[in-house]
Write a structure and sequence with these properties.
Blueprint (H helix, E strand, L loop, with lengths): L18 E5 L7 E3 L3 E2 L4 E7 L8 E8 L2 E7 L11 E6 L2 E7 L8 E8 L7 E9 L5 E11 L1 E7 L8 E6 L4 E7 L4 E7 L4 H4 L7 E8 L8 E7 L10 E8 L4 E10 L6 E3 L8 E7 L6 E8 L5 E8 L5 E10 L8 E10 L4 E5 L12 E4 L8 E7 L8 E6 L3 E7 L15 E6 L5 E3 L2 E8 L5 E8 L2 E6 L3 E6 L4 E11 L4 E3 L3 E6 L9 E6 L5 E2 L3 E8 L6 E8 L2 E6 L3 E6 L4 E11 L3
Parallel strand pairs: 1-41, 32-39
Antiparallel strand pairs: 1-46, 2-30, 3-30, 4-5, 5-6, 6-7, 8-9, 9-10, 10-11, 12-13, 13-14, 14-15, 16-17, 17-18, 18-19, 20-21, 21-22, 22-23, 24-25, 25-26, 26-27, 28-29, 29-30, 31-33, 33-36, 34-35, 34-37, 37-38, 37-39, 40-42, 42-45, 43-44, 43-46
């Protein structure tokens, strides 16, 4: 006990211990533009994916102009630059594409959605599947009918048979068509989905269903769908959108109208932004309501509802006007961020904006901006992200409407990364330490550089059973475990469904901060002077002098009370700002 601490109530205070904590600082993102590559035409969708199995991200685009549409491939040279465009499919009416391993040979394939005929419900849709050979070439095209004219396609294993299926969203016909993968072909089945604007306003022109994504939005292990419903009638004074969740029941899909509306929304994207094991979704918007421009992040509550926030509000914050967004840990601090392709906006030029995440659902910081090398002629339109070189940092690819795409190489550094990505494909299992002794709940931390990008998910297996999964390339979660020896494995699943496992890791769970054998307070975590990530996990226990009992304990951070309990043990996770902090845990006995 320190003689200067609370000496007036020394008989009641068991102990006062001071600890200096260095909370890991958030790294400012840094990006450097690499040489541009000329496109065949403006790109309206871009995906970073490793099509030749070299652990480096290539770029696949859907490009279109008045002369036609192409699916185009740009192969990564391995030095931060890309080769000339390679057209792998040309057709009139290309609307969208998706990637996956559709024939289960371990190589990425491409499914191309083509719509033909009148721009109404009498038009038709078909999907052409191009099979990859794992060396950057595609062939063996097979085409499958997919119902009425359609605007969007998503890939996912919707019946949990281990094969990647496809879902197609019709533009006018109010249907979703599921192309079920049998292993040798696809069989089609359609179902009707609800719409908002024409339903609530009889006589309106049909709604336009414009964007479809797949994800496990309730964390039950089944892939759900979520789509964007846009007003297609002149009676809507501005571009307006509503959103519907299609929850996979195992025998069909149940629709839920979400309590979320937008104006001028761009394409939908999905990732587990808060790391809770459920897919979230996010999008950029340029609309006519207040705020006019921004980025929405919608966090799944797991019950068919979402908590939405403005990740960026262009009316209030300096930054570019976002055209498209992508998620990733772009400043290497273990927290998911959002990056945007932006045109000139409030106080900035066109280029790239990074909204670094604060962790959990606490929001995003004001953007870090990087100018396009095209200056006044820049018109960023679409964005993708992946590991372009072998430095273990996710890079960003921006396609501009003028007909160029620009690789932005990540130079943020990994000094503050709690679990750096592997330089080559694989998983880095950072916590708990192999053979270590820990208390429950046990903190698990890992990162995944998918051998064939992009990563689909990371799974946590404990004692032979799957306990948790997260749909991004980082895992940071805590699991309550019984006292004793346990074994954990991290499993990464890449874009083809390939499974990458870490070696089994054994560790021992001790009793949660054992009560001291003498009259004192014992702080089990964090260690004195430790560098830790926020939120800081604090656990302590106290023993009273002979003949007395502990009646209360309290945690102080920087002399401010944080938590009081009526117990002889105390545990809490406390969010702290970067810098050094003073931790004190105080206990009182039953004499008061």
């Amino acid at each position: 006990m320190h003689p200067h601490s609370f000496h007036k109530i020394a008989t009641a205070l068991i102990c006062f211990l001071a600890f200096a904590l260095s909370v890991q600082a958030q790294t400012t993102p840094g990006f450097l533009a690499s040489p541009q590559v000329s496109e065949l035409a403006p790109a309206f969708k871009v995906l970073a994916a490793d099509v030749n199995n070299d652990n480096l991200a290539d770029l696949i685009t859907y490009e279109s102009n008045s002369t036609g549409s192409n699916i185009v491939l740009y192969l990564n040279k391995g030095d931060g630059t890309f080769g000339a465009p390679i057209s792998i499919m040309q057709a009139n009416g290309i609307a969208d594409f998706a990637i996956g391993d559709f024939n289960q040979d371990g190589n990425l394939d491409i499914a191309v959605l083509v719509s033909t005929g009148p721009f109404n419900a009498t038009g038709t849709a078909a999907v052409t599947v191009l099979l990859g050979n794992g060396q950057g070439s595609f062939g063996g095209a097979q085409t499958f009918q997919a119902g009425s004219l359609a605007s969007s396609i998503a890939a996912g294993d919707f019946n949990n048979d281990g094969r990647m299926d496809l879902a197609v969203l019709s533009t006018f016909a109010k249907t979703v068509t599921i192309l079920t993968n049998t292993g040798t072909t696809f069989t089609a089945g359609s179902f009707t989905v609800p719409t908002n604007f024409d339903t609530s306003n009889p006589g309106f022109a049909p709604d336009l269903l414009t964007s479809l994504i797949a994800g496990d939005f309730n964390g039950d292990g089944k892939m759900d769908l979520l789509y964007q419903d846009s007003c297609g009638d002149s009676g809507c004074p501005v571009s307006e959108e509503n959103y519907y969740l299609l929850t996979n029941t195992g025998s069909g899909f149940t629709a839920t109208h979400l309590a979320l509306a937008s104006t001028g929304a761009g394409p939908l994207h999905t990732a587990d932004l808060d790391g809770d094991g459920r897919s979230d979704f996010f999008f950029a918007y340029n609309g006519c309501h207040t705020p006019c421009t921004g980025v929405v992040a919608a966090y799944s509550n797991g019950d068919g509802t979402f908590q939405s926030i403005d990740a960026f509000n262009g009316d209030l914050t300096a930054g570019g006007d976002p055209a498209d967004v992508i998620a990733g840990d772009f400043n290497n601090d273990g927290v998911m961020d959002i990056a945007a392709a932006v045109v000139s906006g409030l106080s900035v030029n066109s280029g790239l904006d990074i909204y670094t995440g604060k962790g959990g659902r606490t929001g995003f910081n004001n953007p870090a901006h990087f100018d396009s090398p095209n200056g006044a002629n820049a018109a960023p339109l679409r964005i993708a992200a992946g590991f372009v070189n072998a430095d273990g940092q996710p890079d960003i690819l921006v396609a501009e409407f003028a007909g160029d795409f620009i690789p932005y190489m990540n130079i943020s550094g990994t000094a503050n990364d709690p679990c750096p990505y592997p330089l080559q494909g694989g998983i880095n299992f950072c916590l708990p330490a192999a053979g270590g002794a820990v208390t429950s709940p046990v903190h698990f931390v890992g990162s995944f550089h998918a051998p064939t990008q992009p990563a689909n998910r990371i799974e946590l297996w404990i004692d032979g059973k799957k306990q948790f999964q997260v749909f991004n390339d980082r895992i940071d979660t805590s699991v309550a475990l019984s006292v004793g020896v346990h074994t954990a494995t991290l499993v990464g699943v890449n874009a083809t469904g390939l499974i990458v496992k870490t070696a089994d890791r054994s560790f021992t769970v001790q009793a949660a901060c054992p009560v001291p054998k003498t009259a004192m307070v014992s702080i089990c975590s964090p260690a004195s002077g430790a560098g830790v990530a926020s939120p800081v996990h604090i656990t302590a226990a106290a023993a009273a002098p002979a003949g007395r009992t502990i009646s209360a304990m309290r945690i102080y951070i920087d002399n401010v009370a944080q938590l009081t309990v009526s117990s002889n043990t105390i545990t809490d996770d406390i969010t702290l700002a970067s810098g050094s902090h003073l931790l004190a845990v105080v206990a009182w006995d039953n004499t008061g």
